[in-house]
Amino acid sequence: MSLLVDGVGTAGAALTTLCWLPQAAKIIRERDTRALSLPAYLAFTIGIALWLVYGLAIVDWPLIASNVATLALLVPILVLKLRHG
């Protein structure tokens, strides 16, 4: 049962992380961030960082891996939003 629960968690984490890949690619390629809300992206990025801290605290590898990957996609978006408005 634990393997099934871990599999479901890992699949969910993978899907919610990978959904940021097209957004990041488009923003990095086009450098257009006008339609993005800075407060929303900032809050979301901080939230993901806090989930990462939580995952590290409880040593939950799917949580850790998905939040590291999500941060790797969100941080460039946030940086470009700060640079290009």
Produce a short descriptive summary.
With 85 residues, this protein is mainly α. 86% of the residues lie in helices and 0% in strands.
Identify low-pLDDT runs. Answer: none
CATH topology: Monooxygenase
Helix percent reads over 70%
| Rg (CA only) | 14 Å
Distance between the termini: 47 Å
Shape: elongated
Number of helices: 4
Could you name the CATH class? Answer: Mainly Alpha
Sheet-strand content, in percent, reads under 5%
Please indicate the count of domains: 1
Q: How does CATH name the architecture?
A: Up-down Bundle
Reported for the largest beta sheet, the result is:
none
* Alpha-beta classification: mainly alpha
Task: List the secondary-structure elements in sequence, H or E.
Answer: HHHH
Q: Quick check: average pLDDT? A: 91
| Number of E strands | 0
Overview of the structural elements:
The structure is a single chain. The protein has one domain (2-84): Monooxygenase. The protein contains 4 helices and no strands. The chain has helices at 2-18, 20-30, 38-58, 61-84. The chain is mainly alpha-helical and 85 residues long.
Summary keywords:
mainly alpha; single chain; elongated; 85 residues; Monooxygenase
What's the arrangement of secondary structure elements?
Blueprint: H1 2-18, H2 20-30, H3 38-58, H4 61-84
